[in-house]
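Hello Y.,

Per our agreement to keep a running log of every chain we model this quarter, I'm adding this entry. I've kept the format consistent with earlier entries: sequence first, then predicted structure.
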Amino acid sequence: MNTQCNTLGKGMVAGFVATIVLSLLMIAKSIMGFMPDLNVITMLSSMAHAYMGVPQIMLIGWMLHFAIGTVVWGILFVLLIPHLPGTNTVVKGLILGTIAWLAMMIVVMPMVGAGLFGWEFGMMAPVATWMLHLSYGAVLGYVYGRLTGACRVGAKPADHVAT
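Predicted structure for the entry above:
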């Protein structure tokens, strides 16, 4: 395999870039005072403390946030992309973002005591978090498409990305 076309590595790069964008949106949400009780970094930090016994500090939450977005979802995207519906990597990224959102709503939210779909935070919690995950997925798909487009036989990088 050509090392320039290492799709797992490119999936992680795309996941990292998408996580940066997601993080900036989360910070903007916080600065605007929108849903202040819904703080994913605090939630991850609390979960790590409760389940792994690590100190409950924001740095741990941020590290987990980046590990999940970069490694877990970046690699899962590469593994799932052949099976996801859609005609380009952005659409496939939007679908993966929705899958990630569902995982958060069904697994993470109940684990932190926020209830299924985060209803303890109110009706806007599922909507706001879905919008954030769609942003993550769109960036993930776009960056991955740009990074891998030239690796496909006879393709130009722009062939796999929505314009």
